[in-house]
Amino acid sequence: MTLDFLEKLNNEYDKYFESVLTQKRFTHSYVKQLINDSKIQNNFSVKLLGRSIENREIYSIEFGVGESTVLLWSQMHGDEPTATMALFDIFNFLLADDEFNEIRNQIKKNLKLIFVPMLNPDGAERITRQNAVGIDLNRDAKRLQSPESKILLNLVEEYQPVFGFNLHDQDFRWSVGNTNQLAAISLLAPVYDYEKSIDSSRLNAIKLVAQLRRSFEKYLPNKIARYKDDYEPRSFGDLIAGKNISTILIESGRDINDYNKFFYRKINFMMLLFSFTEIINNSYSEINITEYFEIPTNGNFMVDLILRNVTYETQSEKALIDIAINREEVYKENSRIPFFKSYIMDIGDLSVFYGIEEFDCTGFEFDLGLISDEELKSVSNLKESDLKKYHEKGILFLRTNQQTELNDLRMPINLITNQNDSALEFNLNKPTNFVLKKNNEIKKIVLNGWLCDPDDLSKVKNGLVF
């Protein structure tokens, strides 16, 4: 029945997608709006637990009247929003009236679900891991110096849940073990001491994690990992696991081009609802714990792009090098729409690293590219056909005296506003712009870290302003 339930959830998920949350960098105001909606207020028990350092409300949303309490908290790191989105999808599911009514009634009858969406609203406002004063809430479980930390611990002590779900996002570049496969989801039954002991509550968490891995392999083939389990006494997961509460950590990665993380939002939705049914039916108890320890741990830290076997001319001779490039999301003045800034992570023999994208540049020669001699009068008048002409000539930078903010440059070209010829610099930790030639003809362009053909730079999200 449970696997059939999963397949039905997979097929019907779009009905429950919360359309208010259409991009991942939403603020506390969106969460507050949804919680104050009459459908939530009338069908759940909504409680104001307290306020953040900057006076933003932190709520719990309760559903069900069962004897077994399950506590779920999301976004204790403000820049980790995937599970928060999934929780509001779950609320829509619990409110619906359709073919899942039998399961809804089972959940309501057997469980008391306590959700805390967005434990760290000040961090969400800043798009930072930490709270308003720079404290990582997940390293504040012992000292409890933040009001947000006290709110969570008070909930744990008041309700003594049988299960706790600690919902996070991880850097999407972690691999599954020592493979070149990105970890979509990393799971863990946290330890509660340095010996990594297994009591009855942790045993239940271990078995449920193993069941989740087994059941979701179909949707995430070879993409599920086990998070590192070193004991961290300042962490809430480890602290709560030591209180006889079966604690499960879910860390969400990201598909390469799914910047809003909608697919793993869906996986969180399915995984949590499936977990509720497993807890009710105690189905996971039959799992052998060896399945848990067979889950590969988070392994290599992968690179966005590796260019292999590039011919690079030094002052005295030609060398064969690999180039590793990463692209990071940048939010200017707390904009909710990301820009990307590339940098060169490493140069040389990178045969021990994996790239999320790799390209064999055997026979390709490195060239820095060019800065346009002419001065651009208007950025807004640039056309795609103009850009292609520049790219075909190896021109990656245009000069302009127009004051152009990064927010205005959502196009595949770079701008130099202060005669900054050093923009062409090729070195570690520098922005990544150059061309690759064969027989002195430009074959590939690397613009702000994206590898493209000169006549097709559609994958480039934005250039940079120097």
Number of domains: 2
Characterize the largest beta sheet: strand count, sense, and whether it forms a barrel.
Answer: 8 strands, mixed
At the fold tier of CATH, the topology name of the largest domain is Aminopeptidase
State the CATH superfamily name of the largest domain. Zn peptidases
- Known CATH architecture of the largest domain: 3-Layer(aba) Sandwich
Strand content: 25-35%
Q: Nearest-angstrom radius of gyration? A: 25 Å
| Count of β-strands | 21
CATH class annotation of the largest domain: Alpha Beta
Number of DSSP helical runs: 12
Q: How would you state the average pLDDT, rounded?
A: 94
Query: Which residues form runs of ≥5 with pLDDT under 50?
Result: none
Neighbour order of strands in the largest sheet = 1-2-4-3-5-9-7-8
Please explain how this structure is put together.
The chain is an alpha/beta fold and 466 residues long. The termini are far apart. It contains 12 helices and 21 strands. The strands form 5 sheets. The chain has an 8-stranded mixed sheet with strand order 1-2-4-3-5-9-7-8, sandwiched between helices. It has helices spanning 2-12, 28-35, 38-43, 82-95, 101-110, 121-126, 147-159, 200-216, 236-241, 262-281, 290-293, 384-392; strands at residues 45-51, 57-63, 68-74, 111-116, 163-169, 174-176, 185-188, 224-226, 246-252, 298-301, 303-313, 318-330, 339-348, 355-360, 365-367, 370-376, 395-400, 414-416, 433-438, 441-447, 450-452. It folds into 2 domains: 2-300, Aminopeptidase; 303-452, Roll (Urease, subunit C, domain 1), CATH 2.30.40. Helix content is 27%, strand content 28%. The longest helix is centred in the middle third of the chain and has 20 residues, at 262-281. Helix 1 (2-12) runs antiparallel to helix 10 (262-281).
